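Long-time lurker, first post. I've been practising inverse folding by hand and with some scripts of my own, and I keep getting stuck on stretches where the structure tokens seem ambiguous. Below is the full token string for one chain I'm working on. Before anyone asks, I'm not after the true native sequence, just a reasonable design that respects the backbone. If someone could post their per-position residues I'd love to compare against what I wrote down in my notebook.
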């Protein structure tokens, strides 16, 4: 799945390393909440109702322009099954932002949010930022979680919250833009006290796609 898409022109360019910042972002949450669909909607502006479930981690790369800066995003799609969390924890290191997703039709995925939050807190870079995504409002008739419950969670942990739909393309771009802006703000603050952070962010190389196993199920 690894690919590179220029967020301004839509042109794929795997060799382009001309950027101001590079941020590693992770989409985390239980299996089948729609992480892969969300990533494809943002990176490629496509939607597929069912994917082969991701086991392990894969990524896409997208270049965006925020506040006159060219930002290269390496966005990782992680497996959500409990038995694979030991695989994904190694990839938390170096991440600067997270999309933490749950499915409004699946209360179990909401109840797991605290566990996902605790895991990222143990393994993540100090400047991380989280956006909470309540996914699939397009199937509101099957809703198991109220908006108010999601807002309370976001308020308690003090990170932004979006109800978003990859299927209907609702709030997908806005969620990523908010995440990137928040990280840029943190980077600007840190550069005031430690200019070496800029060199570190520019010189970070994209790693090769890790090998994946696959199994047939929707994700």
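-- Answer (accepted) --
I ran through it position by position. Result:
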């Amino acid at each position: 799945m690894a690919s590179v898409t220029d967020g301004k022109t839509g042109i794929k360019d795997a060799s382009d390393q001309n950027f101001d910042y590079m941020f590693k972002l992770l989409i985390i949450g239980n299996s089948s909440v729609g992480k892969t669909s969300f990533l494809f909607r943002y990176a490629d502006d496509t939607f597929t109702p069912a994917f082969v479930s991701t086991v392990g981690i894969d990524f896409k790369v997208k270049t965006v322009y925020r506040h006159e800066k060219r930002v290269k995003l390496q966005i990782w799609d992680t497996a959500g099954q409990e038995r694979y969390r030991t695989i994904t924890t190694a990839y938390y290191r170096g991440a600067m932002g997270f999309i933490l997703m749950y499915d409004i039709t699946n209360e179990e995925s909401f109840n797991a949010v605290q566990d996902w939050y605790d895991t990222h807190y143990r393994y993540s870079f100090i400047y991380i930022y989280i956006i909470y995504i309540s996914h699939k409002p397009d199937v509101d008739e099957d809703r198991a979680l109220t908006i108010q419950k999601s807002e309370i969670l976001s308020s308690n942990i003090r990170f932004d919250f979006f109800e978003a739909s990859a299927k209907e393309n609702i709030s997908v771009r806005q969620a990523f833009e908010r995440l990137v802006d928040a990280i840029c703000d943190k980077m600007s603050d840190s550069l005031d006290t430690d200019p070496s952070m800029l060199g570190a962010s520019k010189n970070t190389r994209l790693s090769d796609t890790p090998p994946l196993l696959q199994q047939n199920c929707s994700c």
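A couple of notes from the structure itself: The first strand starts at residue 4 and ends at 6. Strands lie at 4-6, 21-28, 53-55, 57-66, 69-78, 97-103, 129-135, 160-164, 213-215. Happy to go over any region you disagree with.
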